[in-house]
Amino acid sequence: MPDIPLEEVERIAKLARLRFEISEKPKLQKELSDILAYVDQLKEVESKIIEAEPDDKALNLVREDVSINSDDPEEFLKQAPSREGKFIKVKSILE
């Protein structure tokens, strides 16, 4: 793949709000061309979905998700590491 034009490099740099010295632009031109060539190679690769075969040795250790009703909210609140009245107190993430 031929090098992309310097005008295109300048346009991409402007869109990305990047500034380069004039001496750096040919190197960037080469690097961008190499990246685009690599992307073209990846486009040519045929992708396949490989189905996993069941493994008799695999064991699913996930427990059944069961909800339990609690008539006493205090029982739930006792488990909180910190609370204020009938509310669970958490660390502030917004300031």
* Spatial extent as radius of gyration: 29 Å
Tally of individual helices: 3
Shape type = elongated
What class, by secondary structure content? mainly alpha
Strand content: under 5%
| Straight-line N-to-C gap | 51 Å
Overall pLDDT metric: 84
Strand count, sense and closure of the main sheet? 2 strands, antiparallel
Task: Please provide a written account of the structure.
It is built from three helices and two strands; from the N terminus they run αααββ. It has helices at residues 6-15, 25-44, 73-77; strands at residues 83-84, 87-88. β1 (83-84) and β2 (87-88) form a beta hairpin. The model has no long low-confidence stretch (mean pLDDT 84).
Topology:
Layout: H1 6-15, H2 25-44, H3 73-77, E1 83-84, E2 87-88
Antiparallel strand pairs: 1-2
List descriptors.
95 residues, mainly alpha, 37% helix, two-stranded antiparallel sheet
In short:
With 95 residues, this protein is mainly alpha-helical. The chain contains three helices and two strands. It has a domain of 39 residues.
